[in-house]
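BUG: 3D viewer hangs when loading the predicted structure for this chain

Environment: internal workstation, default settings.
Expected: structure renders.
Actual: progress bar stalls at 90%.

Input used:
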Amino acid sequence: MTPVPIITDTGKARAMLVRLSISTWTARKFDRKATDKVNDANDAVREAGRYNKHLLANAKAHADIMKASGAARATHYDQTLPWADEGWRLLPTANYFNYMDVMRKERRAFDAAVETFIDQYPTLLEEVREKLGDMYRREEYPNAYRVRRRFSWDIEISPVPSAGDIRVNLPDDERDAIAEAVTIRVQRATETAMQDAWDRLYHAVAHMQDRLGNKETVFRNTLVSNMRDVVDVLARLNVTENEDLEAMRRRVDEELTAFDAESLRDDETLRSATADKAKAILDAMASFYAPAVEEVSAA
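Structure tokens produced before the viewer hung:
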């Protein structure tokens, strides 16, 4: 089947590009004195290593910001597809409202963590003096106002490039060559995005088959909940409206998410039957999909 293009004949886009930018203060500082001490103690040259100290060692409030930032990036990646340009991701219009909703929640968590940290910052400065000992340098700590400005969050939206957008004062053959290059670039990026969608489904099914197929293997409740999350988001990420992907997604939803993890653990027959269904789905996928990675980790 010929894939459906991202840009329709009427000029409407089935997707857009999105970029998430989160800035944080890592609170890490290179310490030349400590570095020289370690290198000298080991009879090593100065270039042998560098000691970067954590200015806020064991500060939970700071760690919570980094955790919130990581969670936001993970959600951003889960709700989008890869794109050729660094930093940009493909966001299907079908998933736009869901994406914005979950990212607003992630931002609220991030902002709340930042405000808690800033409130505690004066106290943390007193506590860290004892934790760092001789490595403490008060001048290495910005005031609360400057620290607050180091945390930022931004989401940018941009249209997917289109050959029809090439409006430059060049000879027709040059303009056509640029338009063709844009078309090829978008096509390749779209193929990469859809490969990622297939990979998500394949690896989720392969992981379930591996965990359920070995009766000695213990699995968590997330084995099923993660599968449900995958089939849910892929219903909105199928930007080319690929019929094979949608058929496999529906089959996975019907056959592998019908029972919860507890039921699968308690009923060996059900567990074995579900593992067989997962294997059958993998076999069916092989006729039109080649996994990017040959082996799937069971971790």
